[in-house]
Amino acid sequence: MGFDPRVDLGRGLVLPNPIGTASGTFGYGFEAEEMGSLIGLGAVYTKGTTLHPRQGNSPPRISETRAGMLNSIGLQNPGVDVVATAYARRWLDWRVPVVVNVAGADQDEYVRVCERLSGAAGVAGLELNISCPNISHGLDFGTDPGRAAQLVAAVRRVTELPLLVKLTPNVTDITEVGRAVQDAGADAVSAVNTYVGMKISLPERRPVLRGLGLAGLSGPAIKPLALATVGRLRRSLLIPIVGIGGIASSRDALEFMVAGADAIQIGTANFYRPGIAVEVARECLEFAAGEGLAGWGDLRQLEPVDSSRS
Ligand code: SIN
Could you confirm whether 132 is annotated as catalytic? Predict the structure, then answer.
């Protein structure tokens, strides 16, 4: 049998290949469309979308670190009405599935945004963002398994769209939140969003990034942390996992698949190399052909690591 590059994230969301672009690093895909960089992508995960338009935090909002990037964007977006109408209409003609990342200040906002998007042809799925460290209530759901479950159940009641939940690593035990959202009806999880970080301006005696003063750390610095987290989630969840965290090459992507990811999002690397996700997708396919894989599942590590061994 030939190699099947597709990935099934549940409820009919089948990606042509596992490699997608992470929320907040690729807008709504239109710049990539103009550059011809959508062809060969597995999925586009959009910027976090809220009920009303948001300007986001005051600049500066991004700053490089030694091995990564800090952001405090504050969910700048045009609001769900624009996304569900003008944007979704354009996605209808695309071959690449578009998953809309959804954010909110409270449960009611998430539910209303998801309800609005569910009627929009062109939206392939929803990714509930319960992990934004840059707005005041951005982590309320992601750090509390009970509230995360309630939110997922409430959203599940208003949409039949495939539902991913993007988890925060800023918790003691991410598997508790993962299990809670799985049991409440999530089809897949995305792991992980950024780690809470800070950069200080010594002359000004204050954080470089405004907003809350804190910011989200991404890029190569977090890759080993994210890999370990994906491995832990894989051992406790049954639903698919979309791995994220410092992925900048096909080798990185394949390593995440060995650790247990079913699909991949490339984030920070898009900033310095637009088009990298398409390259990574092509190289992963070449690797699969070279190794004679039947499916991506063949990459899963053979022996699950025994977490009880110290
Ligand atoms: C932001 O807009 O501040 C980033 C979104 C996120 O971290 O989820």
Answer: yes
